[in-house]
């Protein structure tokens, strides 16, 4: 099962894609589509943007600029690193693609090491990890901290196959206000 589940029916068409923001945010349960962190752990709601999964700036995807299902909720660093990047057709054919956690499970592509780093298990994971720098120092430190909290509380670590929002609330219940 995919990490994120998009609503079955898109909202009514809009004049500007930014009007979809509340619905996209809801579909991604306030988590980044790429690093998977909840906005509370990724500098807050104001640090999140709408990403065009297939970049609207590329001519082959220009028609998707206002397509609801092409809009992903992303933290600023991930969105900035992805930018208008898209793999060349030869790379895509070889499996070097941006992972789409609306269609993929985390564990099919990554393993989280005990030190908080994500280890790629597929070509798509290698490509995504490298392009978006998903093992940035602060991301690894946050994942390690979450592991340490789970261990100290005797509960399960975050399962990245599921959106992190509710898991983080449970993990931190009684420690911080959600």
Can you describe what's shown?
With 178 residues, the chain is of the alpha+beta class. 31% of the residues lie in helices and 9% in strands. It is built from six helices and four strands. The strands form two sheets. It has a two-stranded antiparallel ribbon. Strands 3-4 form a two-stranded antiparallel sheet. β3 and β4 (118-120) form a beta hairpin. It has one domain.
Secondary structure layout:
Elements: H1 21-27, E1 48-52, E2 71-75, H2 76-82, H3 89-93, E3 110-112, E4 118-120, H4 123-132, H5 137-153, H6 164-172
Question: Care to give the gist of this entry?
Answer:
By secondary structure, this protein is an alpha+beta fold. Helix content is 31%, strand content 9%.
How do the helices and strands follow one another from N- to C-terminus?
HEEHHEEHHH
Question: How many helix segments?
Answer: 6
Number of E-type strands: 4
Structural class: alpha+beta
In total, the number of domains comes to: 1
Q: Mean pLDDT, as a whole number?
A: 95
What share of the residues does DSSP label as strand, in percent? 5-15%
Bin the helical content. 25-40%
The backbone outline, from C-alpha atoms, is globular
Q: Detail the poorly predicted runs.
A: none
Largest sheet, in brief, is: 2 strands, antiparallel
The N- and C-terminal alpha carbons lie at a distance of 27 Å
Query: What strand line-up does the widest sheet have?
Result: 1-2
Write down the Rg: 16 Å
């Amino acid at each position: 099962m995919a990490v994120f589940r998009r609503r079955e029916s898109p909202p009514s068409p809009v004049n500007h894609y930014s009007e979809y923001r509340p619905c996209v945010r809801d579909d991604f349960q306030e988590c980044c589509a790429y690093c998977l962190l909840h906005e509370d752990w990724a500098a807050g709601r104001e640090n999140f943007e709408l990403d065009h999964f297939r970049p609207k700036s590329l001519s082959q995807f220009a028609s998707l600029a206002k397509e609801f299902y092409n809009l992903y909720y992303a933290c600023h660093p991930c969105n900035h690193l992805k930018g208008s990047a898209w793999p060349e057709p030869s790379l895509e054919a070889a499996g070097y693609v941006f992972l789409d956690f609306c269609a993929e499970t985390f564990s099919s592509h990554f393993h989280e090491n005990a030190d908080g780093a994500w280890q790629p298990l597929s070509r798509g994971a290698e490509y995504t990890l490298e392009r978006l720098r998903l093992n940035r120092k602060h991301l690894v430190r946050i994942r390690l901290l979450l592991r340490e909290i789970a261990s100290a509380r005797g509960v399960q670590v975050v399962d990245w196959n599921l959106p992190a929002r509710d898991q983080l609330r449970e993990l931190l219940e009684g420690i911080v206000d959600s």
